[in-house]
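Open question from group meeting: does this chain pack into something compact, or does most of it stay loose? Before anyone orders reagents, we agreed to write out a predicted structure and look at it together. Recording both the input and the output here so the notebook holds the full record.
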Amino acid sequence: MNEIETRVVGVLHKVVDSRFVRSINPHSDLKHDLLLDSLDIMEMTILLEDEFSIKIGHDETQEFKKAHTVEVKDIVAYVKGKLGHLSA
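Structure tokens returned:
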């Protein structure tokens, strides 16, 4: 795992029920595998903002909530994209 992946997983450890922490992997689906609900996803976005000093807009948060499938790797890619925009 690279640094960003490790930090994203660290954020998820704070949100995910302890029963599912060990099952977090790049292909874990936030809703179906880790059983995150809307409030958990909101908490995750706030923690990601704090962890990476990025801003995640309301519309983006809603997309995470509404999407049928969002995997950990999608969150990692999203954060990498946000960090890339900061350095551009």
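Observations to bring back to the group:
The chain is about 60% helix and 0% strand.
Residues 72-87 form the longest helix (16 residues).
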